[in-house]
From TrEMBL, chain A:
Domain of life per record: Bacteria
Signal peptide boundaries: none
Localization annotation: Cell membrane
Stretches assigned to coiled coil: none
Sorted UniProt keywords: Cell membrane, Membrane, Transmembrane, Transmembrane helix
Bilayer topology: Multi-pass membrane protein
Protein name per UniProt: Amino acid/amide ABC transporter membrane protein 2, HAAT family
Automatic annotation (TrEMBL), chain B:
Membrane-topology annotation of the record: Multi-pass membrane protein
BP term (GO), one: amino acid transport
GO molecular function, one term: transmembrane transporter activity
Annotated compartments: Cell membrane
GO CC annotation terms, alphabetical: plasma membrane
Keywords from the named record: Amino-acid transport, Cell membrane, Membrane, Transmembrane, Transmembrane helix, Transport
Protein name (database record): Amino acid/amide ABC transporter membrane protein 1, HAAT family
CDD domains: TM_PBP1_LivH_like (cd06582)
Originating species: Desulfofustis glycolicus DSM 9705
Family the entry assigns: Belongs to the binding-protein-dependent transport system permease family. LivHM subfamily.
Ranges annotated as spanning the membrane: 6-29, 41-60, 66-85, 94-115, 142-161, 194-215, 227-251, 263-282
Organism taxonomic ancestry: Bacteria, Pseudomonadati, Thermodesulfobacteriota, Desulfobulbia, Desulfobulbales
UniProt KW Glycosyltransferase keyword: no
Main location as per UniProt: membrane
Length: 334, 286
């Protein structure tokens, strides 16, 4: 191949890297159940898909808008319990229930977000943490509706007519399909004007405001969007497992979600996918270390943040870029 | 009626004093490094654990045991700062905060390995015969908590306003770059702030574990309440931390007494959110 032709091919690949990546990933995900049919493994990857949806929304809020939320497990919980209560006690069919719940959670996020997003930094962290705490306590104590500490069971699976998403393989396509849709939506959002405005907001709020970004509105909008993502993921979670309990939605879940964002890379959509995958699988891997589990879990987190503070994806991409630039300089000098 | 109220106020002040101690620890670290130090949560558990070992494994009497536990936690806190946070060369506060979350997981793992998962009991400082104060019966431990909290705050004031290292720390809290320009050693200031935070957390742990029980994760909820107290008062402000701690304690015990004990945390956090809506920087924040 002539050098010019090679450059053209490389340029084409570079230009279409996002589309190619999404295409490859979709193909890989379509074929995955053919190679791997162990229900346990598929169950794990399904959980990654659910977490990815929440983390994508949270990363838009933390990474792109530069805010902090330690309370996203609350929106996740509202989605899950909302679907559970409306379908079992309210007798609604699952799909409209899911939409209705997502709209309601969005409204709740709007009502909470308008006053709370005036706060910054540690105050915002505490306010969202407090919100999570309140929701978690209500789930535990209001046992006539939520089933209390023992949880809420008997949630029907999703489906159309006789076709039900009840096996791990079917759920794989449903959950990863939804996760990929959310991924595409996020990828497009961050390249739009709104997304660029958000990135400006994360960089410097005052500068963004002086350039005409309506910062207050932008923050509330992205907060509502991330809450809706979390609610959809919660509904999928409820229908996927048929059982929800308050344990899954405590403040530690919220912390884990933020850890996924930070480890994957704040402000990196692909990082959300990687962070969700890594942190979801981590407890499985460190099970080998039995008694030293917490030690290894915390250690990996600390080491990643210490040596790649921009997160895995951004950090590794930066390393590669620096390598390439150095090699180019060497060529130019020679 | 009046006696009930007095009883609630006493129990509120007791837990409020504990929250205030933990909140002060959060504030000290925030003033020098600008981050929320989530390891504070485990300093509380560690204080109780060291007190337990000092009393039963080393056979120390009460007062040396207390000093041993507090000094031990302060030493661990300095190790955490020197080897856990110092090597991280990032300015991003969110990353630093999540390093403290990771360190907290590690420290909790170590505590679990050393002392196990069982619930234990630490004896109170003096025998448990309730004292009658104006019709309310109060445990002697509660009085000790109030007294030692006041002493700790007095010592802290002495340190910050009467020693040169304290002056350095106030300078860093006021303006970190100006402090660096006049040659104040940042490393030593950070190390000291961690030692103080550890000592305060450890003291809170030693004092509170005879009332609650002692387990490896006893500090998590207490620590988060301490964080809430620090935010309520205005993060970084010492009078704010004390006010926030006592306020949160009273709010909890009064709502547990008059509204519902199941929802006492909900009431406390809802009030916190409402306060933040009116005063976005806490009660005494700048």
């Amino acid at each position: 191949m002539s050098p010019i032709r090679r450059d053209k091919v490389l340029y084409f690949l570079f230009l279409h890297r996002t589309g190619l990546f999404v295409g490859l990933l979709t193909a890989a995900l379509m074929l995955f159940p053919l190679i791997e049919d162990n229900p346990y493994t598929l169950g794990l990857t399904n959980l990654i898909a659910i977490n990815t949806i929440v983390v994508l929304g949270l990363n838009l809020f933390i990474g792109y808008a530069g805010q902090i939320s330690l309370g996203h497990a609350a929106f996740f919980a509202l989605g899950a319990y909302g679907s559970a209560v409306t379908t079992v006690a309210g007798g609604m069919s699952p799909w409209p229930a899911m939409l209705l719940v997502a709209v309601l959670v969005g409204l709740i996020a709007l009502v909470i977000g308008i006053p709370v997003l005036r706060l910054t930094g540690h105050y915002l962290a505490m306010a969202t943490l407090g919100f999570n705490f309140v929701i978690h306590t209500v789930l535990l104590e209001w046992d006539e509706v939520t089933g209390g500490p023992s949880g809420f069971s008997g949630i029907p699976p999703l489906g159309w007519g006789d076709f039900l998403f009840d096996s791990e393989v079917r759920l794989h396509y449903l959950l990863w399909g939804s996760a990929m849709l959310c991924l595409l939506l996020s990828l497009n959002l961050v390249r739009s004007g709104v997304g660029r405005g958000l990135a400006g907001l994360a960089g410097d709020e005052t500068a963004a405001a002086s350039l005409g970004v309506d910062t207050k509105r932008a923050k509330v909008k992205v907060f509502v969007l991330s809450a809706v993502f979390a609610s959809l993921a919660g509904s999928l979670f409820a229908h996927c497992y048929g059982f929800v309990s308050p344990d899954s939605f405590g403040i530690f879940t919220s912390a884990d979600l933020v850890i996924m964002v930070v480890v994957g890379g704040m402000g990196s959509i692909w990082g959300s996918l990687l962070g969700a995958g890594l942190i979801t699988l981590l407890p499985e891997w460190v099970d080998v270390f039995a008694t030293y589990k917490d030690f290894v879990h915390g250690g990996i987190l600390v080491l990643v943040l210490m040596f790649l503070p921009q997160g895995l994806v951004t950090g590794i991409v930066d390393l590669v870029r620096v390598k390439i630039a150095l090699r180019r300089r060497k060529h130019a000098a020679a | 009626m009046y006696q009930d109220l007095l009883q609630y106020i006493f129990s509120g002040l007791t837990s409020g004093a504990i929250y205030a101690l933990i909140a002060l620890g959060f504030c000290v670290v925030n003033n020098t490094m600008g981050i929320v130090n989530f390891v504070q949560v485990d300093f509380v558990s560690l204080g109780g654990m060291l007190m337990f070992s000092a009393l039963f494994a080393l056979g120390l009497p009460m007062v040396p045991g207390l000093l041993f536990a507090v000094a031990g936690v302060a030493a661990v806190a300095m190790v955490v700062e020197r080897f856990g946070l110092r090597p991280a060369r990032t300015e991003n506060h969110l990353v630093l905060i999540f390093i403290t979350v990771g360190l907290s997981i590690i420290l909790r793992g170590i505590i679990k390995l050393v002392w196990g998962k069982n619930r234990m009991a630490v004896p109170p400082l003096t025998p448990d015969t309730p004292v009658n104060i104006m019709g309310a019966s109060v445990l002697p431990q509660a009085l000790w908590i109030l007294l030692l909290t006041v002493i700790a705050i007095a010592l802290l004031m002495f340190f910050f306003y009467r020693t040169s290292l304290g002056l350095c720390m106030r300078a860093v809290a006021c303006n970190p770059s100006a402090a660096a320009v006049v040659g104040i050693p940042a490393g030593r200031v950070r190390l000291t702030s961690y030692a103080i935070a550890g000592a305060l957390g450890g003291l809170a742990g030693v004092l509170v574990t005879p009332i609650t029980t002692l387990s490896y994760d006893v500090g998590v909820l207490l620590g988060l309440k301490g964080f809430a107290a620090a935010i309520l008062g205005g993060f970084g402000s010492f009078p704010g931390a004390i006010l926030g701690g006592l306020g949160l304690g009273l709010l909890e015990s009064l709502s547990a007494g008059y509204i519902s004990s199941a929802y006492k945390d909900v009431v406390a956090f809802v009030v916190l959110l409402l306060v933040l809506c009116v005063r976005p920087n806490g009660l005494m924040g700048k």
